Amino acid sequence: MQEYLDNGLELGFLIDRKNRTVYIYRSEKPVEILKNPDVVKGAPELPGLILSMAKIW
């Protein structure tokens, strides 16, 4: 993910299905780690993006 951030990525999700964990990468910010979330939101970079995790888990 760091390579993507270095090349201009503003928002990235890394989804670990086995451990039901989502890592949210944003430029210039520390990684946010969510354990077993119901939804993942893309705001403020992608307002309106809401990813329902029920379909992924």
Descriptive notes:
The chain has one domain. Helix content is 9%, strand content 39%. The protein is built from one helix and five strands; from the N terminus they run αβββββ. Strands 1-2-3 form a three-stranded antiparallel beta sheet, with no helix packed on it. A two-stranded antiparallel sheet has the order 4-5. The longest helix is centred in the N-terminal third of the chain and has 5 residues, at 2-6. It starts with a helix and ends in a 5-residue tail after the last strand. The model has no long low-confidence stretch (mean pLDDT 96).
Brief overview, please?
This protein has one helix at residues 2-6, and strands spanning 11-16, 21-26, 32-35, 39-41, 50-52. It is mostly beta strands and 57 residues long.
Total individual domains: 1
Structural class, from secondary structure content?
Answer: mainly beta
Distance between the termini: 22 Å
Q: Number of DSSP strands?
A: 5
Share of residues in helices: under 10%
Strand content: 35-45%
How large, in whole angstroms, is the Cα Rg? 11 Å
Mean pLDDT: 96
Instruction: Please trace the helix and strand order, writing H or E for each element.
Output: HEEEEE
Query: Quick one: biggest sheet?
Result: 3 strands, antiparallel
Categorize the overall geometry. globular
Number of helices: 1
Enumerate the spans where pLDDT stays under 50 for 5 or more consecutive residues. Answer: none
Q: What's the arrangement of strands in the largest beta sheet?
A: 1-2-3
